[in-house]
Design goal:
Number of domains: 1
InterPro entries: Cupin_2, GPI/OXD, RmlC-like_jellyroll, RmlC_Cupin_sf
Strand content: over 45%
Oligomer: single chain
Radius of gyration: 14 Å
Protein name: Cupin domain protein
Keywords: Metal-binding
CATH superfamily: Jelly Rolls
CATH architecture: Sandwich
CATH class: Mainly Beta
Largest sheet: 6 strands, antiparallel
GO molecular function: metal ion binding
Low-confidence stretches: none
Order of helices and strands: EEEEEEEEE
Helix content: under 10%
Strand order of the largest sheet: 1-2-3-9-4-7
Structural class: mainly beta
Number of helices: 0
Length: 118
């Protein structure tokens, strides 16, 4: 097997359905079908006013902010986010992500395969 190199902007971007988010696109970087058996690395792009809706799930996820200004909101707190910030969301915590700026808010999110259902 050779090394895999790519540009995230060249990956197919699918619109996240309206049951889960507003003005949000998702790209799959790695997954069990593509070089990572145990996790899925996704890149989410939230346009101006974009957000994921409040949700919780049975798995944790790891987030790294790539660009823009946004926030992660829980039932008890709001954390402002910008490039190079990171977030660990534990299993069972109700949360959502919001674009708080005029530019796209983009972040990498890693979950186990069962976490990539939308």
């Amino acid at each position: 097997m050779d090394i895999v190199v790519g540009d995230r902007k060249e990956l197919e971007a699918g619109q996240v359905d309206e049951d889960h988010a507003l003005n949000t696109k998702k790209r799959i970087v790695f997954s069990p079908e593509d070089h990572w058996d145990s996790h899925v690395m996704r890149v989410f792009t939230l346009g101006e006013g974009g957000q994921t809706f409040q949700h919780s799930h049975d798995w944790p996820h790891w987030v790294y902010i790539l660009a823009g200004e946004g926030a992660v909101v829980t039932e008890s707190d709001t954390h402002e986010l910008s490039r190079d910030d990171y977030v660990f969301v534990p299993a069972g915590l109700t949360h959502n992500f919001e674009n708080r700026g005029k530019e796209e808010f983009e972040f990498m999110c890693i979950v186990p395969p069962e976490g990539d259902s939308f």
